[in-house]
Amino acid sequence: MELKGIHHVSAITANAANNYHFYTRILGMRLVKKTINQDDPSVYHLFYADEIGNPGTDLTFFEIPRAGTTNQGHSSISGTSLRVPNDDALGYWQRRLTEHGVIHDGIMEQDGRQIINFRDPENQRLTLISDESNTGLRGGKVWEHSPVPADKGIIGLGPVRLTVQDPAPTTSVLTDILTFREARSYPALVSGQEAIRVFSTGEGGTGAEIHLEIRNDLPQERPGRGSVHHVAFRVENEDELTKWKDRIQAERLPNSGLVDRFYFKSLYFREPNGILFELATDGPGFSTDENVDRLGESLALPPLFEDRRDEIEANLNPLDTKRPR
Known about the structure:
The protein is of the alpha+beta class. Helix content is 18%, strand content 35%. It is built from six helices and 16 strands. The strands form two sheets. Strands 2-3-4-1-13-16-15-14 form an eight-stranded mixed β-sheet. It comes from Lentibacillus kapialis. This is Ring-cleaving dioxygenase MhqA. Keywords: Dioxygenase, Oxidoreductase. Residues 5-131, 156-282 form the VOC domain.
């Protein structure tokens, strides 16, 4: 068994409408699913991705209206990368972010790749990363109706950064249990700290990496709006996920067991530093209950919740996501 790469990253927003505007109108991603948090159906779960929500392209958000401000620190998923096709695309993005008043650090090089670090309106820590030199896992395809040109748009998730005080237990889970391999390191982002270690899985490349940052100068993160809830890794199918469940249980790691999320099947567990990992199957996908042309335009409910539709819709703030025809 070998994990194929990053499946999705799920974060927290306090305002679904503002979140929808930023990720679709400014970043040009497609809302491929407007649904509910299946563990709390009183709030939205929004999925932004490529043209059809291919695995490895999904950045998702739980809406928690009363979420406080994130106090950033260790024991956290401290950075999410979004892939763009090449270095030239970053020039476009530098101009676009500036025009829209988005806080960013300009183009720089990190780990041999061109990047732009930036923040969303809720201080979500994001990075645009060039696929110019990528030889590993391929990205997705920009939606034809995106406001961003197809040759410049976001094509998937890139490396995810974890920040911990003690790297040993996280490293053990990544390499001894989850089949990641340590590939290289690069200088710390903060003076005086250890180098950032890069772990790769599957075909490798920008869509299949975890970057492990060691920080002994920070308190533990207190999550809120603008923080990341969990990172999910790609598993081929349910049969393989069952084998992963057996492996996780054999390692005596408390876990959720198999969970049916309708659009994919999952297993959740926390590594010893408290960071929540998910293993998720590639299918069946987001067109299971909606036509591809209409993805994300109406509230999609898994069958388990369909008989509660009226109640659920009454408790949600209206969010118009219908695309003009």
